[in-house]
Structure formats: structure tokens, C-alpha cells
């Protein structure tokens, strides 16, 4: 998960409302279904004593985001100042509403997009349709390089005209160069990665050849047909989601392999179990937090929610007075963000003690005992 873009949530004001729900748009009555889901979510927010201004802000967020293509989920996190995050999820998620001192991030880490932005370019030799997907929002534009004609006119040679082929080829090159320039600008502005390219084979190849190496290395080609042939948007979205999921699984694999290599070594850079991971977070030593099945486990924290421990005695040993009891699945991901660590949600590949583990930046001192 791209933790950097979630770090802004740390500046939010308590309490936080964290809402997750299915936001699929794959049936004729999708709008009606969304309305019904919102009514249930609104009732649950009220039951959790959410402030009416927060409920109103969340309601606007529910309906303001552009409808997704096909199956999708949604994550909304808000505080008293308004909506902090409003994003589509790769997969639908069961409805969840929490109002608590910290934002609940586990479903977002599990089902959210790993990149804050990606770009889709549907290209041919006349230009391209470009769409930047950024934080759940879409910005679309068309690039027309102004090069004409792109195709050789039928019968031109037999009518006694000069061969228009060189002019046609130069027009196509001009258009592709214009597309490459705009793609580069959008990628640099949005930090888009990956860059998905669809269209006829030669146009795709020509575009990639025109891109700077640093942009070309981000390209993922989707072989789904020509730009003007009426792409199946659902197929394109399925291909995109499959690629993003593959990248996520590769990231999890890498973290799991490193954890396994470190956990059994003397002084290995790994920790597992609630007490050990809390200690590592308090010492700023966590490089990647691994969230498994934590269940309803809790931790105790100081008044500012900046130091967490598995029990009050350990917290006191840090010189802090226990002030709050917080769900571990809320406190630990937020604690990881606070120390600049990454966060991954693991699956059946590993089962760490207490459902939580970490890969460390450096060795940590032993968990302090009670004074």
C-alpha cells in the first residue's frame, strides 16, 4: 500500500468516521442500490453518535464520486472538518462503519489501489484519449497532434498526384510526439504509475518509443484492440485491476519472504506479536507492518495516542500514563504511518503471533518491563 498518500490522515481531528461499502455499478438499478446502501450507512453512523455535520459531509461524498466501471467498493474517511478520503476500492467490501479516535484503515489497505494515480492512454496515429485515475477521481482529455492526413487517400497515386505517403507518415509521427509529450506531463504532474496503453499495435509501439525511458519503463500494454473500435470498458478495467492486484501480491510476497528470512535469525530484523510490534513502532524501527487476523485485540495508549503498548505496565515503563484503550487494528496501522513505515495486509501465507508482525529497519531493544 502506498502509505505516503495516507499520511495526511494523521492531521485529522478526533473522532474519525470510517465507512466502507459496496459501490458496484454493474446493474441497471445501481443508482437505486447505492441510495439504499447509503440509508443503511446513515442509520449506522447515527447509532455511533456521529455528528450531523459529519454525516452530511459523508452523504455528499457518497454521491459526488464518479460511478465506477463494474464491481467496486468504496472507502470514505471523515472528521469534524469534512471528508479526508473518498476512494474506489478494487473489490467490493462488506459494509463497515466505525466512529473512533483513529481512522480504520485495514479494508483500505486490503482492497485499495496501491498507487495514488495511474494513467490510461488509448492511442492511434491521430492522437489519444488520456484518462488519469487519481485518488478515486478521473480526469479525461483528448490529444490531437494536428498532423493530417494520417492515412493515404484511396486512388491518390492513380489520379496523378505525388505519393502522399511521406506526408502521411510525418503527420502520424507528429501526432504521436504530441501524445508522448502530454503523457509525460501528466505522469510527472500526477506521479502516475503504471501507465496503461491500449490501441493498435504500431501506434502503441511508436508511442513507447517516443516516451522518455523513465516514463516508458512504467508502461503496461493492454492488448484490447484499436482506439476507435469501441473498447469494452469493463474488460479494460478488469485488465487494469488484474495488473494492480499482481503488483500487490508481488509486494506482499517480497515482504513475507523477508520476514521469514529474518524472524528465525538471532538479532534478525523482524518482530511478531502485539507486544513486540508495539515496542518496535514506539522505537521507530518498523519498515513494514504486516497485518493479519488481529480480531478484536486492543492496545493501551497515552493521552495523545502516540505511544501504544500491549498492557498498561509496559506503557508506564515508557513513562506514559495509560489514557485510552484502542482497537489494535486501528492503532497499529496509524502508528506505522506515523513512523513512515509501509503497511501490507497478509493472507494465508503467514500466521504471525497475535495476527501482527513487522520487518524492521534496525534491531530494537527489549520490551521494557514494569518499573
UniProtKB/TrEMBL annotation:
Gene3D superfamilies found in the cross-reference section: 3.30.1330.30
- Per its UniProt record, what SUPFAM superfamilies does this chain match? L30e-like
Q: Which organism is it from?
A: Mycolicibacillus trivialis
Query: Record's InterPro entries?
Result: Bact_RF_family2, Ribosomal_eL30-like_sf
Write the protein's name. Answer: Peptide chain release factor 1
Which domain of life does the protein's organism represent? Bacteria
Amino acid at each position: 500500500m502506498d502509505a505516503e498518500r495516507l499520511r495526511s490522515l494523521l492531521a485529522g481531528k478526533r473522532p474519525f468516521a470510517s465507512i466502507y461499502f459496496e459501490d458496484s455499478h454493474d446493474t441497471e438499478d445501481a443508482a437505486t442500490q447505492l441510495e439504499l446502501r447509503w440509508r443503511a450507512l446513515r442509520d449506522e453512523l447515527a447509532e455511533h453518535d456521529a455528528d450531523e455535520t459529519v454525516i452530511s459531509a459523508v452523504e455528499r461524498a457518497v454521491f459526488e464520486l464518479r460511478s465506477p466501471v463494474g464491481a467496486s467498493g468504496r472507502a470514505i474517511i471523515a472528521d469534524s472538518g469534512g471528508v479526508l478520503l473518498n476512494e474506489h476500492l478494487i473489490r467490493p467490501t462488506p459494509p463497515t462503519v466505525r466512529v473512533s479516535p483513529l481512522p480504520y484503515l485495514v479494508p483500505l489497505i486490503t482492497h485499495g489501489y496501491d498507487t495514488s494515480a495511474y494513467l490510461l492512454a488509448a492511442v492511434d496515429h491521430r492522437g489519444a484519449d488520456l484518462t488519469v485515475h487519481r485518488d478515486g477521481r478521473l480526469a479525461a482529455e483528448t490529444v490531437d497532434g494536428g498532423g493530417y492526413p494520417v492515412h493515404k487517400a484511396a486512388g491518390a497515386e492513380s489520379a496523378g498526384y505525388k505519393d502522399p505517403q511521406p506526408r502521411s507518415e510525418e503527420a502520424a509521427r507528429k501526432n504521436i510526439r504530441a501524445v508522448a509529450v502530454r503523457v509525460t506531463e501528466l505522469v510527472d504532474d500526477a506521479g502516475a504509475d503504471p501507465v496503461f496503453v491500449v490501441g493498435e499495435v504500431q501506434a502503441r509501439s511508436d508511442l513507447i518509443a517516443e516516451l522518455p525511458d523513465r516514463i516508458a519503463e512504467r508502461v503496461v500494454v493492454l492488448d484490447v484492440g484499436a482506439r476507435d473500435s469501441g473498447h469494452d470498458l469493463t474488460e479494460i478495467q478488469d485488465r487494469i485491476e488484474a495488473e494492480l492486484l499482481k503488483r500487490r501480491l508481488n509486494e506482499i510476497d517480497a515482504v513475507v519472504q523477508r520476514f521469514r528470512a529474518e524472524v528465525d535469525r538471532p538479532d534478525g530484523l523482524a518482530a511478531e506479536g502485539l507486544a513486540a510490534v508495539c515496542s518496535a513502532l514506539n522505537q521507530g524501527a518498523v519498515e513494514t507492518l504486516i497485518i493479519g487476523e488481529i480480531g478484536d485485540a486492543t492496545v493501551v495508549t497515552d493521552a495523545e495516542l502516540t505511544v501504544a503498548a500491549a498492557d498498561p505496565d509496559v506503557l508506564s515503563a515508557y513513562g506514559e500514563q495509560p489514557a485510552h484503550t484502542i482497537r489494535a487494528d486501528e492503532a497499529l496501522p496509524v502508528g506505522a504511518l506515523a513512523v513512515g513505515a509501509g503497511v501490507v495486509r497478509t493472507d494465508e501465507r503467514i500466521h504471525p503471533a497475535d495476527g501482527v508482525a513487522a520487518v524492521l529497519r534496525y534491531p530494537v531493544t527489549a520490551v521494557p518491563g514494569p518499573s
